[in-house]
Structure formats: structure tokens, C-alpha cells
Design goal:
2 copies of one chain form a homodimer. Chain A is of the alpha+beta class. Chain A folds into 2 domains: 124 residues, Jelly Rolls (Sandwich); 78 residues, Jelly Rolls (Sandwich). In chain A, 41% of the residues lie in helices and 22% in strands. In chain A, the strands form 3 sheets. The first copy, chain A, has a 4-stranded antiparallel β-sheet. A 3-stranded antiparallel β-sheet of chain A has the order 1-7-3. A 3-stranded antiparallel β-sheet of chain A has the order 8-10-9, with helices on one face. In chain A, strand 4 and strand 5 form a beta hairpin. In chain A, helix 4 crosses helix 6 and helix 4 crosses helix 7. Chain A is globular. Chains A and B meet through strand 4, strand 5 and helix 3 of A and strand 4, strand 5 and helix 3 of B. Chain A binds a DNA duplex (30 and 30 nucleotides) through helix 6.
DNA sequence: CGTACGCTTGATAACCCTCAAATCTAGTGG
DNA sequence: CCACTAGATTTGAGGGTTATCAAGCGTACG
């Protein structure tokens, strides 16, 4: 989620921050809802998700986070965790103390601004997810999620757009607010249309134009330059 | 959305900020999607909403904002508006330049922190809205929205909880991702159950316990102390 | 008194959920 | 190497929630 260019001094300051590296098993929570946090989590490797929960047990993924993302940076300002963080695949997490982050944000205004911007960018994605879940039908919801992940991952290879996204169909269901069964059928529909393949945690976009059209996807909300390969198509 | 206690000096600094007061008609947009903003909007009076849009024309309200809220404070960090801002009722808006806000945030770290916290609090609400739209059925969605507004407005009178919320049923439909017709029927259902009345822009909660139960509402995500009257019930 | 907007109702159909069970896959231990 | 197991994917059938279409009614306002 890099959105800011930092100076060498600022970069050094960040790299000098003390942190505790932690390995997390797939399908396990590393931040529980309701806990008062004293540190923020930097995803070093693996795929993580922020999880909302209803009292009746419904789980809703409200964002995915990959390497370099900080899923709960907002905790520096509001330390009470209002959603859980969960490792989708096996992941490595670097825990950095809120006090250290705050100190750095005040010492280096450029870093403070970058961190603030990071939380704002996260919020922009949340707003778009509300639109996605509230307004689009099953196929479009999935397509939109894949488009977002494609642009955020920025991993392109061969003549198809490919990127790692090791989610189960149950995870996709939780992210789109649909049942597992319907997620499965909608995915099949995208596959049969020759739009997209998903195997072994790798998403292969076969027809970006169609995927984008069914998703009604406009990458503006991500505040990222579309990757070069995409740029030609978008 | 006050979440921070500021010093006298900081309060004075805020009140000295130059701003342009603007009157906005009901049912009109005062920030268009895609515009590059140079100022942020403080809601002085009236009810506003942040609006997401799909290419096919679907509108989705992603939050409501009342007096004292700053719907697009995030624009200070990411000035490209990714959603529109719309006045639900007639409203007064104070536009404050981004550059002035940034300058103040750097001069008074306490203010910078308060502003950052404001954007983070907004994001926490967005995350909960994803859960609401993704996981709950029609009645619960409406109930949850009313619960949130009740706590955020913090207006209690008589032996029923009452607060101003001048939305049309079409607005409620846009906020919950439902059709107008179904919104109407679900509202009737809440009304007939004796849970809640809505007339002339005033919501009167007749049975908070039931409303909260159908909503599966937990106010933690708002990071506010529940109002005194509520506190006895929550 | 006309017009615009908001609320309400009825009928029909589409989309999606739930339940249930079969198949497949990968990892584990004998 | 193979049986065993848990998780993941897939399929079928039936039902319920919600959307869509269409129209009637009320109300505020110029």
C-alpha cells in the first residue's frame, strides 16, 4: 500500500524500529475482537484478513492484507480492536509498539503523514467494499474483488495476469457476503465464461476486459497507478 | 464525532481557521466524485451523506454526517474524491482549505492527532457497515442503522429515545443496499412490532432493547461512551 | 389546481440461501 | 505405500427473502 515517497533518513528511522516477529498458522486469529492493543501488526508474508462478526456468528471479511500492509495501524489512534485479524494462509507478523510508532510519527512529520495516509487509503477501500456488497450481484461482487486484488498485488506474468491469492471459496463467501454454495456457482460461471481461473492459490485472469466490465471496476479508489500491463487495458 | 480532548490553545487555533460558509439545497451534491479537492467540508447544520456509485447507476450511501462531522477529512491526505458528498436535508457547509488544515496539524500535534483519529473513527464505522450490508437481513440492517444513529446523535428526550434523522425511505434503501419497496415493508414491520416510529424526520425509538436485539448492535465500534440514558440499557 | 416527491400496496419472478450429500485433495500416521 | 482424516469443492433440490414492475394515494408547494 505504498502511497508516499520517504527520504533516506525517514526510511532508516522506520527500519530501526524494534519489533517482534511472529509466525501465525493458517486459519487462526492473531488479534481478537475486543482486545486492547499495544502494538500494530505489519504483515511480512502471507495473506491476512480483517474479520467483522455479528453476534449470531456471521463472519464478514472487511479487507485483505498482504506483505507490507499494516491491517491495524488505526489502532495507534484507537487501540480497542473492533475487528479481529485472521491469517488466511500461514503468515509472518511483525508487531511494532504503538508508542514507538507515535514517537516516530511526531519526530518525522513525513512519516506521520505517510501513516495517516495509510489509514485513509484503507478507509477508501472499505467505502468501496460497502458499495460492492450493497449494490452488486454475486458475479460482479466476486469480479470486483478479483480486480481489486489484481491491481493491489501488481503481479503480472506471461500473457495472462496472474497473482497469488490463497483464499478458499469460504473466504470469498465471507468477503462478499454470500453463501459458500452460491460463491462456488458464481465462480464456476466466471470460469466457464473464460474470464478467470483459480487453482492452488493462484488467480489467473484470462480476460481482463470482461472481468473489469462485469465488476464495473474503476481503480480510482485505490489511489494507485495501475500497473503497466493493466494501464494499457484500463 | 468528538473523540479527543483539546487544550484551550488548540481550540482557539481551530476556531481561527478561515473557512467559507456555503448553503446547500436538499437532495444536491456538494462534492462530485472524481473532483480534485482543495478544501475539506465541515457540516455546520443539516444531514449529509457520502455516496458511492456503480457505473450502472446504483447509488450506495456509505455513511451519514451531521453537525460537527467532517465527511471528507480524508481528502487532506488523498485529495481525489472517490465518493460524492450529498446533502440529504438542506445543509450548511464550512469549507476549510487543506493547506490550512495541514499547517495546523503540523503546528499543533494534538490537533494532528485528533484529525487523524477522526478519519480512523470514520473508517471503523465503514468496516461495520460492510458487516451490516453483508451479513444481516433487511430488518436487522435497518435496525442497526437506527441504533448507530441513535448513539451518534445522542439525543434523548421524554421516556422514548428520539432524534432527528430527516431521511426518506429511498435514502434508507440506498444506505442498506435494499430496494425502496422492501425498505418500506421492513420499516412497517419494525413499526408494527412497536419497536420504532419515524415521522417528519424524527425517529422515536419505542423499545430500545428490542431494536438493539434485532440489530445485534454493539456500540463498541463507535468508540463513544454510550449516552447516559442508553448506558442504563446497554 | 397542477406537479413533484414520498409512501404504500399487490403481484410476479429472480436471486440467493439452506440443507444434504458426494467427490476431491492434501496432509498424517501406521 | 495405504488408510484415515479434515478441509475444500461440487452438485442437487426446495424454499425463502428480496427485487422488479405497476399503480394508487397522500402531501407540500407554487
Amino acid at each position: 500500500m505504498a502511497r508516499t515517497q520517504l527520504t533516506k533518513v525517514e526510511q532508516d528511522a522506520i527500519l530501526s524500529l524494534p519489533g517482534i516477529l511472529q509466525s501465525v498458522e493458517a486459519r487462526s486469529d492473531f488479534v481478537e475482537r475486543g482486545d486492547e492493543q499495544t502494538s500494530a501488526c505489519l504483515v511480512v508474508s502471507g495473506l491476512c484478513a480483517r474479520m467483522g462478526q455479528t453476534i449470531s456468528g456471521g463472519r464478514q471479511i472487511t479487507n485483505f492484507y498482504g506483505a507490507g500492509d499494516i491491517p491495524d495501524l488505526h489502532g495507534v489512534m484507537l487501540p480497542g480492536a473492533t475487528s479481529a485479524l485472521s491469517a488466511i494462509s500461514a503468515a509472518e507478523i511483525l508487531r511494532v509498539r504503538h508508542t514507538d510508532i507515535r514517537a516516530m510519527a511526531f519526530s518525522f512529520p513525513g512519516i506521520g503523514e505517510a501513516l495517516w495516509r495509510h489509514t485513509v487509503s484503507d478507509a477508501a477501500i472499505s467505502a468501496e467494499w460497502i458499495v460492492n456488497v450493497g449494490q452488486r450481484d454475486a458475479r460482479s461482487r466476486l469480479a470486483h474483488l478479483f480486480c481489486e486484488m489484481a491491481v493491489r498485488h501488481d503481479k503480472v506474468s506471461g500473457n495472462a495476469f496472474e497473482f497469488e491469492f490463497p483464499v478458499s471459496q469460504a473466504n470469498l463467501a465471507d468477503a462478499t457476503g454470500m453463501s459458500v454454495v452460491h460463491t462456488n456457482r458464481s465462480l464456476q460461471s466466471l470460469r466457464r465464461a473464460g474470464t478467470l481461473q483459480m487453482r492452488g492459490g493462484i488467480v489467473a485472469v484470462e480476460d481482463w476486459a470482461t472481468l473489469q466490465a462485469t465488476a464495473e471496476f474503476d481503480s480510482a479508489y485505490l489511489n494507485m497507478q495501475p500497473p503497466v500491463r493493466f494501464a494499457a487495458v484500463i
